[in-house]
Amino acid sequence: MGDHVGFGDRWSVRSRIALFTGTVVALLCAGFSVVLVWALYMTAGENLLKEVTTAGARVAYLVDRGEAGSVLPYDPPSARDRPVQVVGPQGRVRAATPDMAGKPAMATFRPRPPLRKAIREVCDGVFGRDGCHIVVAQQVYRDGGDWIVYSAAPANAFDVPPGLVAGLAVGSVLVTAAVAYGTRRSVKRALMPVRAIRGELDEINASDLGRRVPVPEAKGEIRELAQSVNYTLDRLEETLEQQRRFTSDASHELRSPITAIRAQVEGALLAPQESDVSEIGQAVLKSLDRLQAIAADLLTLARLDAGAPCEREPLDLGRLVAAKLDTRRPLRRVVPNLAPGVIVRGDRIRLGRLVTSLLDNAERHAATTVRLAVRREDAPDGDPRFRSGAAVLEVLDDGAGIARNQRELVFQRFTRLDTARSRNAGGAGLGLPIARQIAESHGGTLTIIDSPHGACFLLRLPLSRES
User: Fold this and answer.
1) Start-to-end C-alpha separation, the chain
2) What are phi and psi of 123, to 5 degrees?
3) Which letter, b or e, does each residue of 376-399 get, where b requires 16 or more Cβ atoms within 10 Å of its Cβ?
4) Angle between the 162-203 and 10-65 helix axes, to the nearest 10 degrees?
């Protein structure tokens, strides 16, 4: 049994989960690194633009106050890569920082009214071929005309510092490795109960179904798994025990008529002159009839247990019972009260077998009379099987009855009650179990209810909508 139950290679499970987790973490780290670098890039660009704008604004202030000379100082003094020019209304350069002295205007664009500031990227020109510059043009009104203050800074392509890249790469690798290692250890620890469950299942076989898998104390899916496995083992053990008991009882029932036939045949062979062939034949036929009945019952039970499909058709329950009564030679007086038009959907052969079993049981235990009643009833409260109502067959005998604590016992296979239950009179003990199983396969119930005298069997079947 254990060879067919498994949960996969434990190492493979741990490795795959760790690999998947590590991959996810690595992707997250890479995404975080990209976002971080892009954020740094955007921040650096904003800071550069702010610095260039501030440098031009200082010069614009000086121009507005008439304090700007032909040579503009760097402000702050270390900002030597922030060239500034002041261009008059006629487009001539009036002032510039030392690095731009004697050079033509770095740009020709002007702010569009009503704006007083414009930003563009300028390449080549006075900056040469070293690259492009970010140029900020700020308009100042002076001496009846518009003056433009241009400030600039190199707009070099963003270059990621190698230290930052190395730090992000090493950090991503370390985080990924740490998470993968931690995940693998956590999965290993989490799968330990599964390993114990698998180990116990590998030891369980058909001869030792009493063992159960360990149930972890911690609540969770694995605890529920262990409980489900134990519940399945309980049902499996119960089913196998029923099969063993059924096989034993069936063997015992079959042994009796076979033994009788063997004894009769051996007696005839030992004393042929003293044997009456007709008498022996009658005895053997009686035993063979019993064997045939037991074999038919066993075959019926096997089909019911296997859930063999059957054809369903509308049947008048009263007519079905009446047809069975017409084919019988009653041993007791039968009083029928069969209401017409009580329609059910079912298999005619199986329902006929159910009715026959109830009639056989009632005649076997009745003192003088068996009463039959077919009627319809309203749907029992809270039972979804009888939404359209119930078709009822009531079989009542005037015998000794069945004690309340034994009413469920008679529906167990090969069960006989002590009262009037010899093998010759009581059958093999399969009629009532078969009857109940047929009733349940049709969505109904078969029970024993209280009665003033004798035993009262009550069959309920779902009423067809065609009634």
Assistant:
1) 51
2) -115, 155
3) beeeeeeeebbeebbbbbbbbbbb
4) 160
Token reading at 266: 């051996």
The residue to which tokens 């009788």 are assigned: 260
Judge whether residue 415 has pLDDT over 80.
no
CA separation for the pair 36, 168 (Å, rounded): 10
Closest C-alpha to 268, from 278, 260, 257, 276: 276
pLDDT value, residue 166:
77
Render the burial of 116-149: b for 16+ CB within 10 Å, e for the rest: eebeeebeebbbeeeebbbbbbbbbebeeeebbb
Q: Output helix, strand, coil percentages for the chain, rounded to the nearest 5.
A: 50, 15, 30
Q: Which of 150-164, 191-205, 345-359 has the lowest mean pLDDT?
A: 150-164
Task: Report the distance separating Cα 236 and Cα 218, nearest Å.
Answer: 26
pLDDT of residue 428: 67
- CA dist., res. 463 & res. 173, Å (int): 72
Instruction: Report CA-CA distances (Å) from 195 to 4, 182, 210, 385.
Output: 15, 19, 20, 44
Report all structural domains of the chain as residue ranges with CATH numbers, in order of start: 68-154 (3.30.450), 222-305 (1.10.287.130), 313-462 (3.30.565.10)
- The C-alpha atoms of residue 343 and residue 317 are separated, in whole angstroms, by 6
SS3 at position 370: strand
b/e map 64-93, b = 16+ CB within 10 Å:
eeeebeeebebeeeebeebbbbbbbeeeeb
Distance CA 112, CA 207 (A): 96
Longest CA pairwise span in the chain (Å): 159
In whole angstroms, what separates CA 236 from the centre of its chain?
Answer: 22
Whole-prediction pTM: 0.53
pLDDT tens across 75-105, in order? 655 555 678 888 888 878 888 888 877 888 8
Q: How far apart are CA 387 and CA 258, in angstroms?
A: 49
Q: What is the mean pLDDT of the chain?
A: 79
Of 96, 63, 87, nearest to 148 (Cα)?
Answer: 87
